[in-house]
Amino acid sequence: MATLPSSLAASRARDLVARFPSASVLIVGDVMLDQFVVGRVSRISPEAPVPVVEHDHDEYRIGGAGNVAANVRALGAAVELVGVVGQDRGADILRQELERRSIGCGSLVADAARPTTTKQRIVTTRNQQVARVDYEDDTEVSGALEQQIIAEAVRRVDAVSVVIISDYLKGVVTRALVAAIIEQARGRRVPVLVDPKIPHLEYYAGTTLVTPNHHEAEMATHLRIRTDDDARRAGHVFVERAKCRGVLITRGEHGMSLVDPSGEAHYPAVAREVADVTGAGDTVIATLALGLAAGASLAEAAQLANQAAGIVVRRFGPATVTPEELLAEFA
Protein backbone atom coordinates (compact mmCIF):
# COMPACT_ATOMS: atom_id res chain seq x y z
CA MET A 1 0.00 0.00 0.00
CA ALA A 2 1.29 3.46 -0.90
CA THR A 3 2.61 5.95 1.62
CA LEU A 4 0.42 9.05 1.79
CA PRO A 5 1.85 12.60 1.70
CA SER A 6 2.93 13.74 5.15
CA SER A 7 3.31 17.49 4.59
CA LEU A 8 0.46 19.91 3.87
CA ALA A 9 1.53 23.18 2.29
CA ALA A 10 0.44 26.38 4.00
CA SER A 11 -1.24 27.62 0.81
CA ARG A 12 -3.29 24.44 0.52
CA ALA A 13 -4.23 24.67 4.20
CA ARG A 14 -5.43 28.25 3.66
CA ASP A 15 -7.55 27.19 0.68
CA LEU A 16 -9.19 24.40 2.64
CA VAL A 17 -9.85 26.40 5.81
CA ALA A 18 -11.32 29.23 3.74
CA ARG A 19 -14.03 26.80 2.61
CA PHE A 20 -15.05 25.80 6.16
CA PRO A 21 -17.80 28.46 6.44
CA SER A 22 -19.60 27.01 3.41
CA ALA A 23 -19.69 23.52 4.95
CA SER A 24 -22.56 22.05 6.94
CA VAL A 25 -22.18 19.16 9.37
CA LEU A 26 -24.70 16.76 10.87
CA ILE A 27 -23.72 15.24 14.22
CA VAL A 28 -25.71 12.27 15.46
CA GLY A 29 -25.05 10.79 18.87
CA ASP A 30 -25.00 11.10 22.62
CA VAL A 31 -25.45 14.70 23.73
CA MET A 32 -24.52 15.48 27.33
CA LEU A 33 -24.55 18.34 29.81
CA ASP A 34 -21.51 18.94 32.02
CA GLN A 35 -22.46 20.67 35.27
CA PHE A 36 -19.85 22.03 37.67
CA VAL A 37 -20.99 22.77 41.23
CA VAL A 38 -18.25 25.09 42.44
CA GLY A 39 -17.62 25.87 46.08
CA ARG A 40 -15.11 26.40 48.87
CA VAL A 41 -13.82 23.78 51.26
CA SER A 42 -12.76 24.87 54.74
CA ARG A 43 -13.66 21.90 56.94
CA ILE A 44 -14.37 18.19 57.10
CA SER A 45 -17.88 16.97 57.81
CA PRO A 46 -18.48 15.75 61.39
CA GLU A 47 -20.80 13.10 59.94
CA ALA A 48 -18.22 11.37 57.71
CA PRO A 49 -14.59 11.93 56.63
CA VAL A 50 -15.57 14.00 53.60
CA PRO A 51 -15.08 17.68 52.79
CA VAL A 52 -17.96 20.11 53.21
CA VAL A 53 -18.33 22.20 50.05
CA GLU A 54 -19.87 25.63 50.56
CA HIS A 55 -21.64 26.36 47.28
CA ASP A 56 -20.48 29.40 45.32
CA HIS A 57 -21.88 29.00 41.79
CA ASP A 58 -22.78 26.56 39.02
CA GLU A 59 -21.21 26.33 35.57
CA TYR A 60 -22.53 24.45 32.53
CA ARG A 61 -20.85 23.16 29.39
CA ILE A 62 -22.07 21.03 26.50
CA GLY A 63 -20.45 17.62 26.39
CA GLY A 64 -20.37 14.44 24.34
CA ALA A 65 -21.64 14.99 20.81
CA GLY A 66 -22.36 18.58 21.84
CA ASN A 67 -18.66 19.25 22.30
CA VAL A 68 -17.98 17.93 18.80
CA ALA A 69 -20.61 20.40 17.57
CA ALA A 70 -18.92 23.22 19.50
CA ASN A 71 -15.64 22.40 17.75
CA VAL A 72 -17.28 22.41 14.32
CA ARG A 73 -18.96 25.73 15.06
CA ALA A 74 -15.73 27.32 16.32
CA LEU A 75 -14.13 26.45 12.98
CA GLY A 76 -16.84 28.39 11.19
CA ALA A 77 -19.22 25.78 9.78
CA ALA A 78 -22.94 25.29 10.28
CA VAL A 79 -23.86 22.32 12.45
CA GLU A 80 -27.02 20.42 13.41
CA LEU A 81 -27.37 17.94 16.27
CA VAL A 82 -29.55 14.83 16.40
CA GLY A 83 -29.82 13.08 19.74
CA VAL A 84 -31.99 12.50 22.80
CA VAL A 85 -32.67 14.66 25.84
CA GLY A 86 -35.13 14.33 28.69
CA GLN A 87 -38.02 16.60 29.49
CA ASP A 88 -36.23 18.22 32.38
CA ARG A 89 -34.25 21.25 33.50
CA GLY A 90 -31.07 19.73 32.09
CA ALA A 91 -32.60 19.72 28.62
CA ASP A 92 -33.58 23.37 28.96
CA ILE A 93 -30.07 24.37 30.01
CA LEU A 94 -28.50 22.26 27.27
CA ARG A 95 -30.65 23.86 24.59
CA GLN A 96 -29.80 27.33 25.92
CA GLU A 97 -26.07 26.56 25.75
CA LEU A 98 -26.39 25.17 22.22
CA GLU A 99 -28.43 28.13 20.98
CA ARG A 100 -25.95 30.54 22.54
CA ARG A 101 -23.28 29.00 20.28
CA SER A 102 -25.59 28.98 17.21
CA ILE A 103 -25.64 25.17 17.15
CA GLY A 104 -28.79 23.74 15.61
CA CYS A 105 -30.75 21.72 18.17
CA GLY A 106 -34.17 21.51 16.54
CA SER A 107 -33.66 17.78 15.89
CA LEU A 108 -33.02 16.85 19.52
CA VAL A 109 -35.74 14.37 20.47
CA ALA A 110 -37.26 14.74 23.95
CA ASP A 111 -38.13 11.60 25.89
CA ALA A 112 -39.89 11.94 29.25
CA ALA A 113 -38.83 8.43 30.23
CA ARG A 114 -35.09 9.17 30.37
CA PRO A 115 -33.09 12.00 31.91
CA THR A 116 -30.87 14.34 29.97
CA THR A 117 -27.43 12.73 30.30
CA THR A 118 -25.70 14.95 32.86
CA LYS A 119 -22.31 14.69 34.54
CA GLN A 120 -22.46 16.75 37.72
CA ARG A 121 -19.01 17.46 39.14
CA ILE A 122 -18.52 18.98 42.58
CA VAL A 123 -15.31 20.99 42.46
CA THR A 124 -13.52 23.50 44.64
CA THR A 125 -12.62 27.01 43.60
CA ARG A 126 -9.08 25.64 43.22
CA ASN A 127 -10.32 23.22 40.53
CA GLN A 128 -10.05 20.14 42.75
CA GLN A 129 -12.77 17.60 41.99
CA VAL A 130 -14.49 16.27 45.10
CA ALA A 131 -17.11 13.98 43.55
CA ARG A 132 -19.09 13.28 40.39
CA VAL A 133 -22.73 12.30 40.02
CA ASP A 134 -23.99 10.91 36.69
CA TYR A 135 -27.63 11.21 35.67
CA GLU A 136 -28.25 8.91 32.71
CA ASP A 137 -30.11 6.01 31.15
CA ASP A 138 -27.76 4.24 28.76
CA THR A 139 -30.28 1.68 27.52
CA GLU A 140 -30.31 1.62 23.71
CA VAL A 141 -33.27 3.49 22.30
CA SER A 142 -35.87 1.34 20.57
CA GLY A 143 -39.38 1.35 19.20
CA ALA A 144 -41.00 4.67 18.39
CA LEU A 145 -38.18 6.68 19.96
CA GLU A 146 -35.55 5.00 17.77
CA GLN A 147 -37.68 5.53 14.67
CA GLN A 148 -38.08 9.21 15.49
CA ILE A 149 -34.30 9.63 15.82
CA ILE A 150 -33.73 7.77 12.54
CA ALA A 151 -36.27 9.97 10.78
CA GLU A 152 -34.59 13.16 12.06
CA ALA A 153 -31.12 11.95 11.04
CA VAL A 154 -32.11 10.74 7.57
CA ARG A 155 -34.02 13.95 6.90
CA ARG A 156 -30.95 16.03 7.74
CA VAL A 157 -28.42 14.03 5.70
CA ASP A 158 -29.67 15.51 2.42
CA ALA A 159 -28.76 19.03 3.51
CA VAL A 160 -25.20 18.52 4.83
CA SER A 161 -21.66 18.09 3.54
CA VAL A 162 -20.56 15.43 6.05
CA VAL A 163 -21.98 13.33 8.91
CA ILE A 164 -20.32 12.59 12.26
CA ILE A 165 -21.58 9.76 14.46
CA SER A 166 -20.49 10.53 18.02
CA ASP A 167 -20.90 7.33 20.05
CA TYR A 168 -20.53 7.45 23.84
CA LEU A 169 -22.56 4.28 24.60
CA LYS A 170 -25.37 6.34 26.13
CA GLY A 171 -28.11 4.71 24.06
CA VAL A 172 -28.60 6.86 20.96
CA VAL A 173 -26.37 5.03 18.47
CA THR A 174 -28.03 1.80 17.34
CA ARG A 175 -27.34 -0.59 14.49
CA ALA A 176 -30.50 0.52 12.68
CA LEU A 177 -29.64 4.21 13.04
CA VAL A 178 -26.14 3.82 11.60
CA ALA A 179 -27.41 1.66 8.73
CA ALA A 180 -30.07 4.23 7.82
CA ILE A 181 -27.53 7.08 7.85
CA ILE A 182 -25.09 5.13 5.68
CA GLU A 183 -27.77 4.22 3.15
CA GLN A 184 -28.95 7.83 2.86
CA ALA A 185 -25.41 9.23 2.73
CA ARG A 186 -24.23 6.76 0.09
CA GLY A 187 -26.72 8.05 -2.45
CA ARG A 188 -25.38 11.59 -2.06
CA ARG A 189 -21.72 10.58 -1.58
CA VAL A 190 -21.67 12.23 1.84
CA PRO A 191 -18.77 11.03 4.05
CA VAL A 192 -19.75 9.40 7.36
CA LEU A 193 -17.19 9.61 10.18
CA VAL A 194 -17.41 7.78 13.51
CA ASP A 195 -15.94 8.52 16.93
CA PRO A 196 -16.38 4.95 18.15
CA LYS A 197 -16.98 2.77 21.15
CA ILE A 198 -15.64 -0.73 20.62
CA PRO A 199 -18.75 -2.66 21.81
CA HIS A 200 -20.48 -1.15 18.75
CA LEU A 201 -17.68 -1.99 16.32
CA GLU A 202 -19.89 -4.07 14.03
CA TYR A 203 -22.38 -1.19 13.76
CA TYR A 204 -19.88 0.89 11.78
CA ALA A 205 -19.69 -1.29 8.64
CA GLY A 206 -19.76 0.89 5.52
CA THR A 207 -18.67 4.13 7.16
CA THR A 208 -15.99 6.32 5.58
CA LEU A 209 -13.62 6.65 8.54
CA VAL A 210 -13.51 5.53 12.17
CA THR A 211 -11.28 7.38 14.68
CA PRO A 212 -10.39 5.14 17.66
CA ASN A 213 -7.71 6.10 20.14
CA HIS A 214 -4.88 3.61 20.53
CA HIS A 215 -6.50 1.87 23.53
CA GLU A 216 -9.70 1.33 21.53
CA ALA A 217 -7.71 0.12 18.52
CA GLU A 218 -5.88 -2.38 20.72
CA MET A 219 -9.17 -3.66 22.14
CA ALA A 220 -10.68 -4.05 18.68
CA THR A 221 -7.68 -5.78 17.09
CA HIS A 222 -6.12 -7.61 20.07
CA LEU A 223 -2.78 -6.14 19.00
CA ARG A 224 -0.37 -4.06 21.05
CA ILE A 225 0.43 -0.66 19.57
CA ARG A 226 3.83 0.64 20.58
CA THR A 227 5.40 1.70 17.28
CA ASP A 228 4.32 3.19 13.96
CA ASP A 229 4.55 -0.26 12.37
CA ASP A 230 2.34 -1.68 15.13
CA ALA A 231 -0.21 1.04 14.40
CA ARG A 232 -0.10 0.32 10.66
CA ARG A 233 -0.73 -3.39 11.22
CA ALA A 234 -3.50 -2.67 13.72
CA GLY A 235 -5.06 -0.21 11.29
CA HIS A 236 -5.41 -2.85 8.59
CA VAL A 237 -6.90 -5.34 11.05
CA PHE A 238 -9.29 -2.68 12.37
CA VAL A 239 -10.56 -1.86 8.88
CA GLU A 240 -11.11 -5.55 8.19
CA ARG A 241 -13.02 -6.16 11.43
CA ALA A 242 -15.07 -2.96 11.39
CA LYS A 243 -15.68 -3.22 7.62
CA CYS A 244 -15.15 0.55 7.32
CA ARG A 245 -13.22 2.23 4.51
CA GLY A 246 -10.51 3.76 6.65
CA VAL A 247 -9.23 4.27 10.18
CA LEU A 248 -7.35 7.08 11.89
CA ILE A 249 -5.80 5.89 15.17
CA THR A 250 -5.11 8.77 17.55
CA ARG A 251 -2.07 7.95 19.70
CA GLY A 252 -1.60 10.90 22.03
CA GLU A 253 2.02 11.98 22.23
CA HIS A 254 2.85 9.51 19.44
CA GLY A 255 0.67 11.30 16.88
CA MET A 256 -1.83 9.70 14.50
CA SER A 257 -1.77 6.78 12.09
CA LEU A 258 -4.01 6.67 9.01
CA VAL A 259 -4.93 3.62 6.93
CA ASP A 260 -7.38 3.97 4.06
CA PRO A 261 -7.80 2.60 0.51
CA SER A 262 -5.42 5.18 -0.97
CA GLY A 263 -2.54 4.43 1.36
CA GLU A 264 -1.19 4.75 4.87
CA ALA A 265 0.64 7.45 6.80
CA HIS A 266 1.86 8.42 10.25
CA TYR A 267 1.68 11.99 11.55
CA PRO A 268 3.92 12.80 14.53
CA ALA A 269 2.40 14.79 17.39
CA VAL A 270 3.01 18.52 17.04
CA ALA A 271 2.31 19.72 20.61
CA ARG A 272 5.44 20.74 22.47
CA GLU A 273 3.65 20.89 25.81
CA VAL A 274 0.60 18.85 26.85
CA ALA A 275 -1.66 20.28 29.54
CA ASP A 276 -4.81 18.17 29.08
CA VAL A 277 -5.98 15.71 26.41
CA THR A 278 -9.66 16.00 27.45
CA GLY A 279 -11.83 16.52 24.38
CA ALA A 280 -8.95 16.27 21.91
CA GLY A 281 -10.73 13.46 20.07
CA ASP A 282 -13.73 15.75 19.54
CA THR A 283 -11.47 18.37 17.98
CA VAL A 284 -9.84 15.75 15.75
CA ILE A 285 -13.06 14.40 14.26
CA ALA A 286 -14.57 17.89 13.87
CA THR A 287 -11.53 19.09 11.91
CA LEU A 288 -11.41 15.90 9.85
CA ALA A 289 -15.04 16.35 8.89
CA LEU A 290 -14.57 19.95 7.82
CA GLY A 291 -11.44 19.07 5.86
CA LEU A 292 -13.36 16.47 3.87
CA ALA A 293 -16.28 18.85 3.40
CA ALA A 294 -13.84 21.42 2.01
CA GLY A 295 -12.54 18.99 -0.59
CA ALA A 296 -9.45 17.66 1.19
CA SER A 297 -8.19 14.13 0.77
CA LEU A 298 -8.21 11.99 3.91
CA ALA A 299 -4.46 12.53 4.20
CA GLU A 300 -4.87 16.31 4.03
CA ALA A 301 -7.79 16.29 6.47
CA ALA A 302 -5.74 14.17 8.89
CA GLN A 303 -2.93 16.73 8.81
CA LEU A 304 -5.36 19.54 9.57
CA ALA A 305 -6.76 17.48 12.46
CA ASN A 306 -3.30 16.70 13.78
CA GLN A 307 -2.44 20.39 13.96
CA ALA A 308 -5.77 21.18 15.64
CA ALA A 309 -5.15 18.49 18.24
CA GLY A 310 -1.75 19.99 18.95
CA ILE A 311 -3.47 23.25 19.87
CA VAL A 312 -6.20 21.93 22.18
CA VAL A 313 -3.95 19.64 24.24
CA ARG A 314 -1.99 22.71 25.33
CA ARG A 315 -5.11 23.94 27.16
CA PHE A 316 -6.93 22.71 30.25
CA GLY A 317 -10.34 21.07 29.80
CA PRO A 318 -12.33 20.63 26.57
CA ALA A 319 -11.29 23.38 24.16
CA THR A 320 -12.00 24.51 20.63
CA VAL A 321 -9.85 25.88 17.82
CA THR A 322 -10.49 28.88 15.58
CA PRO A 323 -9.58 28.98 11.87
CA GLU A 324 -6.97 31.64 12.62
CA GLU A 325 -5.29 29.47 15.25
CA LEU A 326 -5.27 26.48 12.94
CA LEU A 327 -3.72 28.41 10.07
CA ALA A 328 -1.08 29.86 12.37
CA GLU A 329 0.23 26.33 12.86
CA PHE A 330 1.03 26.15 9.14
CA ALA A 331 2.69 29.56 8.96
Structural overview:
This protein has 331 residues and is an alpha/beta fold. It contains ten helices and 13 strands. A hairpin with a 6-residue loop joins strand 2 (31-44) and strand 3 (51-64). The longest helix is centred in the middle third of the chain and has 15 residues, at 143-157. 36% of the residues lie in helices and 27% in strands.
Number of strands: 13
CATH-defined topology = UDP-N-acetylmuramoyl-L-alanine:D-glutamate ligase
Number of domains: 1
**Which structural category do the helix and sheet elements fall into?**
alpha/beta
Cα separation of the termini: 31 Å
DSSP helical segment count: 10
Please indicate the percent range of residues in DSSP E strands (runs of 2 or more): 25-35%
Largest sheet: 9 strands, mixed
CATH architecture: 3-Layer(aba) Sandwich
One letter per element, helices H and strands E, the order comes to HEEEHEHEEEHEHEEHHEEEHHH
Helix content: 25-40%
Overall pLDDT? 93
The CATH C-level name is: Alpha Beta
Give the name of the CATH superfamily. Answer: Ribokinase
> Biggest sheet, strands in spatial order?
5-4-1-8-9-10-11-12-13
